[in-house]
Structures are given as C-alpha cells and as structure tokens.
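hey can u check if this looks right to u? its 288 residues, i copy pasted from the old doc so theres a chance i mangled smth
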Amino acid sequence: MTALFALATSLLWGLADFGGGLLTRRMPALTVVVTSQIIAVAVLGAVVLATGAWTEAGPGLWYAVAAGAVGPAAMLAFYKALALGPMGVVSPLGSLGVVVPVSVGLLVGDRPGLLQFAGIGVAIAGVVLAGGPELRGAPVQRQAVLLTLVAAFGFGSVMALIAEASTTLTGLFLALFVQRVTNVAVGGAALWASVRRGAPALPEEGGIRVVWAALPALAFVGLADVAANGTYALAARSGPVTVAAVLASLYPVVTALAARGVLKERLRTVQAAGAGLALVGTVLLAAG
C-alpha cells in the first residue's frame, strides 16, 4: 500500500503543479495559491464537520500548523526562482526536497534493503533528468539557485511534517484542514503585503472575471494538493518513509508528461531518459 499511496501522491502533485503553472500565466501566483486554498478550506471544513474529526484535536496539530506556514513560503520562493530561471534547472532542483523526509526516515529507524537503496538513487536521478536540466546556455543566477534550494527544503519539510500530524484517518482530515487554514492565513498576509507594495492582486486584463471563470481549475489545484498531502501521510504511515518520500517525489515526471499530452510540448531526450529511470527506480523500490 505504501507504493500505491505514494504513486497516487506523485500523480496528484504533478497534476496540481501543471494546473497551477497554467493558471499563473493568467493571474498572479499568490492569487492562485490563496484562492485555491480557500476552496480547499471550505471543502475540508465540511468533511471535518461531517466526520466529527474536530474531536481528535491534539498536540500533533502543531505539525500541521508548521506545514501550513512553510508551504506558502516554499511555493513563493519556487515561483520567484522560476521567474529568474532557467526553468530547466529550477524545476528538477525543486524536487530535491525529498532529501528531508528521507533523512527523517533514516533517523527514525527506516532501513531500506539493497534494492530499495538502489531504487532511491535511480529514482532521484530520474526525477532530476525528467525536468530537463539545462547544462548549457545562460548561466544560472545565484539567487535563483538559493531560492530553489529554499523551496526544496520547504517542500521536503511539509512532507515530513504532515506525516507526523495525525495517526488516524479522521485525524488526518482535521490536520489537513488546519494546514490549509494556515496556508490561507500566511498566503493571504503575503498577498496583502504584495498589494501594499503596488503589485496587482487580479489579472490586469479581465480582472475578477478571469478569476471567476477559473474557479473550477482553481478548485482542482487546491483539492488535488490536499489529496496529495493526505495520500502521502497514508503512505508514510503504512511503510518506510524513505520509500514513500522517493515515490511521492516523482511528480515532476507527471508534470512533464501532462505538458506533453495537453500542451504538445516535446520531451527532450534527457527528459525521456529521466522518465525511464524514474520508472526503473519505482520498480526497484516496489521489489525491495
């Protein structure tokens, strides 16, 4: 079940990133983050009320609060890094956040077998290559690399924190709700500060009408991200965290394939090779 939940996580995160990337072409990134998370809060709030999950409130929810605070900061750093580019370097580097939950797993006693260690190495290499790293061309700004590494650490920290936020399914609903409420509070404060500095909160062309028209897509992005956090928590609980984290980190492969299928973007040779390596790594992890 660990592999199944973790692969579901990579699928959901990959599709959410693809959808979020498309939306940020039409509206400010912070607006996408905040609006999608508000929708997620509304849905999760209804789930918490329906299941009575609020009765499972406990100290573990502080992990959810921490994950909710780190998430928007990591995403903002990632978007800024993408703006500085080149994207072919930034995108695969962002997936290196898997080092955080893998390290946590090793510290708490996970001991993957030889095949799994091989699978971890092959899968991580595949993820980096699937992003299509640019080894030639314009030099990468130090600020872009620094921001990307900050984002990667943040993404990995969210994975590690949300896995510790609850020990039951209904408790997980509450933890995800608390995480998203914190997301909205932190992201909303950042959006407010951005507007105070003169940045637009709405698209310059179309304004609020563009946001209303994009609500279904925004809902998909927010809910897919929530579902991914949930399936990752289940994966980390049902098996070795090291295996769950690496398989969940395959989402850049999903994003690249979605771009190929929807936008007709052609995969470079290095990306195709990376996708193949990621698949081999997945098989090794499952076999181990």
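The chain has a mean pLDDT of 80.
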